[in-house]
Design brief:
alpha+beta, four-stranded antiparallel sheet, rod-shaped
């Protein structure tokens, strides 16, 4: 007698015990890709807020302003030049620039419009003072000494130390970064929960295959490994799609002349390649999250069956 024919694997399954199922995988792929996109945006936002705050605090700590108030029978422009000379003479000052009345009018124009101020209206003038880098790092410059020198010269001037706002900017940046990381953690938890639910649903849909494997002597860890590999690839693909879309959005916002409030949450792409590394790691992290979640969920269900 001839030997019975060995049944062939189903077409399209490539002989795998858990072949892909487009009908079930497509919705999970879309959900996972969206979650990865949101996670990438949250991570980029946290980093962008921190980098932006560092730039702002550096600008604040490296400069200060002298306000020259208009006084009767005094030339405010000459007083501004005198204040700039006094500031330049102090140790730790890199440069001091006296601004004109036109500069003061330009500062008021966004608020009051064009031509709404009379020509004889007295306006305070500004003197911008820049500190050298060594003085900023050492924190050795004392605005009180500059104020005393201006008072001795008889100038109606007030020194505005910008560094006092640096702490407030750091606190705001820390808050934004904490919110971004918290959102990242929530999205990662949601992704793990979605994958666990999908893994349990996939296990229930293939209960006949699982029973057959058990009858053949397959252990729970082997079956859990099958689901782990399957969902790892699914997480890897959806992670790549979400990361690519997040990268495209970041590039468009960064190089497209975005307003300041949007640039605060998404960093300038061209200036720091760390974002490329961050997005490259996203698919791997998504795949690992999906694999671990699927394995734990399936292993838990298998323990309850036998």
């Amino acid at each position: 007698m001839s030997e019975p024919a060995v049944p062939k694997p189903p077409a399209g399954g490539n002989g795998r015990l858990l072949p892909p199922d487009a009908g079930r995988d497509r919705p999970l792929f879309l959900v996972a890709a969206i979650l990865v996109f949101l996670a990438c945006v949250a991570a980029l936002g946290a980093r962008g807020a921190w980098l932006q705050a560092q730039t702002w605090t550096s600008d604040l700590e490296s400069s200060l302003t002298i306000q020259i108030r208009p006084v009767d029978e005094r030339d405010t422009t000459a007083d501004a030049e005198t204040a700039a000379e006094i500031a330049r003479s102090m140790q730790g000052v890199r440069d001091a620039t006296a601004r004109t009345r036109e500069h003061a009018l330009a500062l008021l124009r966004p608020w009051l419009g064009e031509g709404n101020l009379p020509d004889d209206l007295p306006l305070p003038l500004m003197v911008e003072v820049e500190l050298d880098s060594e003085t900023v790092r050492a924190g050795s410059f004392q605005p009180e000494a500059l104020q005393a020198r201006l008072d001795e010269a008889g100038l109606a001037a007030t020194v505005d130390d910008h560094s006092r706002w640096a702490a407030a900017v750091r606190r705001a940046a820390t808050t934004a970064q904490t919110l971004g990381l918290a959102l990242l953690a929530l999205v990662a938890g949601a992704a793990a929960a979605v994958v666990a639910f999908a893994a349990r649903a996939s296990l229930a849909a293939r209960v006949d295959v699982i029973d057959a494997l058990h009858l053949c002597g397959a252990e729970d860890r082997f079956i859990a490994g099958l689901f782990q590999r399957r969902f790892f690839m699914l997480g890897l693909k959806s992670g790549a799609a979400g990361a690519i879309f997040a990268g495209l959005v970041s590039i468009l916002v960064s190089v497209g002349g975005s307003p300041a409030d949007m640039a605060f949450f998404l960093p300038q792409w061209a200036t720091d390649p760390f974002e490329l590394i961050l997005l490259a790691l996203a698919p791997l992290l998504a795949g690992l999250t999906a694999a671990v979640s699927a394995r734990l969920a399936v292993a838990s269900d298998l323990r309850g069956r036998w």
